[in-house]
Design goal:
Layout lengths: L4 H23 L13 E3 L3 E3 L1 H18 L3 H25 L11 H20 L2 H12 L1
Antiparallel strand pairs: 1-2
Length: 142
């Protein structure tokens, strides 16, 4: 597919988030149909979903898919951005899971998923493609 780990991961994670976001819209109606409801439906009996969370997943998927189809620098920046947002989302979920501020119907499974995917995206953005990025920068200077 591609020689860049950042591009490959961006396309893979983007596809996963797009699939879950799309399916989540159908299962979000199981609970209260409000957009920011705290008790959403369940996706695969594990992930709590509501329309707001599914919308966020689809937006993040669009960012990853667009940057993954671009160049190495763009996919690295996309992975960095989405990874940071998912880690912030995980922290938000762990802090506000049982409060009225949980407007995304997050549960522990959602929080662990966001933390793992976010950390993997961040580590790949920071650690991978160093040789590719050096070559790109060197050719830009020449």
């Amino acid at each position: 597919m591609t020689a860049s780990p950042n591009r490959g991961l961006a396309l893979t994670a983007g596809s996963l988030l797009a699939l879950w976001g799309g399916l989540g819209f159908f299962f979000a109606a199981d609970g209260d149909p409000g957009f920011f409801n705290r008790q959403g439906g369940m996706l695969w009996n594990a992930f709590g979903v509501n329309p707001a969370l599914c919308f966020v997943w689809v937006l993040l998927a669009v960012v990853l898919l667009i940057t993954g189809l671009g160049n190495t620098v763009g996919s690295r920046n996309g992975n960095l951005l989405v990874g940071a947002l998912l880690v912030v989302f995980a922290v938000y979920g762990f802090v506000f899971v049982d409060t009225s501020a949980n407007v995304f119907a997050l549960n522990t499974t959602d929080n662990v998923f966001h933390a793992i995917v976010g950390v993997v995206l961040l580590l790949t953005a920071v650690g991978a493609d160093k040789e590719n990025l050096r070559a790109i920068r060197a050719s830009a200077r020449a």
